[in-house]
Write a structure and sequence with these properties.
By secondary structure, the chain is an alpha/beta fold. The chain has nine helices and seven strands; from the N terminus they run αβαβαβαβαβαβαααβ. Bound molecules: zinc ion (ZN). Zinc ion binds at residues 51-52, 55, 154, 157, 180.
Length: 246
């Protein structure tokens, strides 16, 4: 399968971003995504790679629910423990690991396999070759791979996206690239040249995803530092579908 590299060179993808800003309104995305072709998984094994605990649920929680409702293998790989997301929560790595375990139990009616690579948060790009080998060894033949969009705008997301793109190309795998920060940072023309599909979420998948996202308390609540996932960002992940770049 051919995976076209999206040409994002015109975009300030390496610029920092600020979730205090409102970002692109969700209603604009819903209008723009209304005509995107619908897609369904083929009942094969699924491996979801997440730079930080919560990305798997935000980007592909409904897909995890759907696949874990069948008999195919479902595996989640956490590249980091997300320990650098904020400085005002003690032992954040352990907190986020627990949040993810709770979220996965909401998403999946049966236990899914969860593996951690324990790469330092915000330093993923320094370990791309070892991460590539580790992920490659954890993706069974014939599985589909879900990973962040390689121009999502967060350096860890972009690095994991690049790694998974290389694996998928080499092994001719189906790769589902999920945007996270792109929804906030980019405008409705962002994916004009990409092949997008929408996976419709069943009512049970929508409910499971909503419950799972509520588990990430360390990202949802403001403390001395602002919430990582404020309400206007969470709107992007309350859609009755998930959007992937093929
Ligand atoms: Zn992330």
């Amino acid at each position: 399968m051919e995976h076209e590299l999206w040409d994002g060179a015109h975009d300030a993808r390496d610029a920092g971003f600020d979730t205090d800003q409102p970002g692109t309104p969700e209603r604009q995305w819903r209008e723009a995504l209304a005509t995107v072709p619908r897609w369904r998984p083929a009942g094969i094994a699924l491996v979801v790679v997440a730079p930080h605990p919560d990305d798997e649920s935000l980007g592909a929680g409904g897909l995890i629910h759907e696949c874990a409702s069948g008999t195919a293998l479902v595996r989640v790989i956490s590249v980091t423990d997300g320990e650098a997301a904020r400085g005002d929560v003690p032992d954040l790595a352990a907190v986020r690991r627990r949040e993810l375990q709770a979220a996965l139990s909401c998403l999946a009616p049966r236990p899914v396999q969860w593996e951690r690579l324990s790469v330092p948060d915000v330093k993923v790009s320094a370990f791309e070759s070892s991460i590539e080998a580790a992920i490659d060894a954890r993706v069974p033949t014939g599985a589909m791979l879900a990973a962040p969009f390689e121009h999502d705008g967060h350096p860890d997301h972009d690095a994991v996206g690049r790694v998974c793109l290389r694996i998928a190309r080499r092994r001719a795998m189906t790769l589902l690239r999920y945007p996270i920060w792109s929804w906030h940072q980019r405008g409705i023309d962002a994916f004009r040249e990409a092949r997008l599909v929408c996976f419709e979420l069943s009512p049970s998948a929508q409910l499971a995803k909503a419950r799972a996202l509520r588990c990430f308390v360390s990202q949802l609540r403001a403390g001395p530092e602002p919430a990582v996932l404020p309400a206007h960002v969470l709107e992007y992940f309350a859609r009755p579908y998930e959007t992937f770049l093929l």
